[in-house]
Amino acid sequence: MSSCRMERGRAVVALAIVLTWAPAVAVAQQENAETSDVSFKLGTRAWVTTGNTKWNFQGPLFVGGPTINPLSELRWRGVDSVVPEVNAELVWKQLVLRSSLGWGGISEGVLIDDDFLFSDRQGRWSHTRSNVNDDGLFYVNADIGLRLIVDPEKTRSAYTDLLIGYQYWHEKYVAFGATGFQCTAFVGTVDNPMCAAFGAAVAPPTLKVITHDYFWHSLRIGQRTKIPLYSGLSLKADAIILPWSSSELRDVHHLRNDLKQNPSFLSRAKGGFGVQLDGGLTWATWWGLSIEGGFQYWRLDSGEGDKFTRALSGTTKDKLNEIIVERYGPYLGLQYRF
To answer: What is the per-residue pLDDT for 37?
Structure first.
C-alpha cells in the first residue's frame, strides 16, 4: 500500500474516532450512563456478503478510429466476503453521533472480461474468464444526526433520526489465470468460431493477470428508525442515499508489456449516486446487551468520468461510462449500552 493510501486510511479512521468515540468518553466523565439524556453503545456485527462490480468505458479501437461504446467491459461476480464490523454510537439529548468500521478478505469470485469491435456490445472479439483468489475490502462510516421522535417515557426504545455523514469505501480484487478466446486478427462478428483459429487465450490458474483497486469517498444522507414490537423486540431500518461520490479505479494488467504497471489504466469520476439499506430486528436482553440480525444492501454508481490508458509511449484519455459496485447479505451482531 502506498504512503498516500495509508495516510488516507488514517485520516478516515481518525474522523470516525473524533466524531463518536472521543465525545463519548468526555460525556461519560460528566454524566451517569443511566441518565435519560445520554446513551453510549459499542457493538460488533458479522456481515456475510456477496459482491458484484462492473467497469466499462468507450473509445476508439485505434487512434483516429470511430468511438465504440462500450469498447471494453470487466465484470467481477461473486467476490464474496465475511465482513467483521465494529461500531459505536453516542446520543446526547437529540444529538446523535455514530461510526462504524468494517474489513474483510476476498478469496473467491470470477472476472469476466469482454472487448468489442462495434458499439452496443456487438462484434465481441475477446472473452476471458479468470478466478479471483486474493485481497479484500475496508470501509469507514461517520454520521452526525438529529433525533426527531422519542417515546414519551424517554426509554429511547422508539426513535427516528435524520443523519448526514461521510463514507470511505475501498475494495481490491486480484484475478488469476484465464480461459476463453481472443482474436488476434479482427475477423467476423459476435463470437465468431473463427476466433479459435487466431489463438485461444488460456493463462495458467496461478498466473496473476489483473488487479483492480477501487476507492470511494461519499456523502451520506438518510434516516434511521426503530419501532418497538414486543417485550424487548424491535424493528430497525436505515435508508441512506449517497448523492455525491468521488471514485477512482486503479487497474493493473500484469501481462501487458506495452502498459505501465502502476497502474496500467486509471479511471476517475465525481458525482454519481448510491443507496445503502439496512433492515432487521433487535432484541434487548439483559444488562444493556442486545442482539441484532437483518439484511444489508449497498450499491454505488460512479456515473460518467475519465479513463486514462497509461502506455509506455504516453497516456491517452477516453470516456468512463460507469463503475458500479454492489454488496449485500445478512448480518448478525451484538451491542452493549453503557
So the answer is: 83
